UniProtKB/TrEMBL annotation:
Organism annotation: Streptomyces heilongjiangensis
Cited InterPro entries: CE4, Glyco_hydro/deAcase_b/a-brl
Compositionally biased tracts (Basic residues): 8-22
Protein name from the UniProt record: Secreted protein
Compositionally biased region (Basic and acidic residues): 71-82
Region (Disordered): 1-23, 51-104
Amino acid sequence: MKPGSTSHKGRRRKARQPRRTTRPQFVTLAALLVVASLVGGYMVLNRTTSTAPTASSSGGGNSKGNTAKNSTERKWDGRTKVIGDGSTSYTGPQKGQLKAVPLKPGEKPPQFVVFSWDGALAGDDNLFEHYRQMAKRYDAHMTFFLTGIYLLPKDKKNLYDPPQHDKGSAAISYPTNDHIRTTIEELGEAWREGNEIGTHFNGHFCGAKGGGDWSVAEWKQEIEEFNSFLENWKTNTGYTDMDPLPFDVKAITGGRAPCLEGQKNLLKAVKDFGYRYDASSPGAFQVWPAKKEGVWDFPLQMLPFNDEYQALSMDFNFLYNQSDGQTQGDPAMFPTWQQETIDTYMAGFNRVYYGSRAPLFIGNHFEQWNGGIYMNAVDEIIKNVCTKKDVKCVSFQELADWMDVQKPSTLANLRNLDPGQSPDWATVIK
């Protein structure tokens, strides 16, 4: 659908013209990754077909003070505890989560795949519900990154005080009242089914005065605003007839910044809020993750797009490459572009599934760009990969749990593998 269509009111952003990289070789990620924004999307083109050099990523493994989730697990007496104005509640540990256990000597790691969704507004297209059902059907869990103002009515927009902008300002439009109600319902069901709710923060500001320009204190302000919208949606909306969400702000353990901007200061800010991971890195090779500032860094990844490029693992990359960023390109090309997208995801999956077993991260939006071909592609990937032997389709939170219980030496050995390298696992997992 075109920007501004009524069925998706509240989620459209202005496009920024992407830039192309012309460097023929990898030097550093910072020098080669070029990020652009369209409706919260991102683009990276790298003029090479090479995989990463042997990856000894910076950042440690199992650092002290931020280890297993169980060390900070809250005690529960079996009773639901309604919090504040009744917007949220504590209903005990989330059910159905992956059991995190250390690898045994010589054991091949699972192939983790994480599907994540930016914004997480339940619009008229029912895509939120669709992917909840897909997750249940294929024994998967996903991460839904909620935009905080999607719980805030437009007539209450001045409750949002964004960094470096006037009160009530946002680079996206506010949701309809009906969409707020439906989003709250979907969030609750998603969490009960074992999916993760993370944060996409609030106003989706990019570029000048966006997250890349924010100080640590300003990022903390943005997180506090998000928490307020989650904790007080009943007061803000007047929807006192609705049940509390079955989780509270302590269940938010990570997020993805709009346009992948501002991670340096964001990482310093999130520690005060108990976040365990961040998915805001502007792209990386398909290697095993490391920590930055004591927080797991789960970046989008470069996947083999064709013989010339590797593209970031998000729907907008394909949109940009295939229709020059136009949300409705040539319909005659939709079947070709859809298959090209599927092939790229599968190439990235196969490279690590038969190689290093590094996790695969796929990020998307609830959008019908180019006739919905990117939604169709994700559907096919879920069907194809979540049913394979040793594959675990999990949330970022579950992956962080698993990473936290592995030996630091095991994680260090895993990070030294090239993406397509299939080792003698006895020499890696000791």
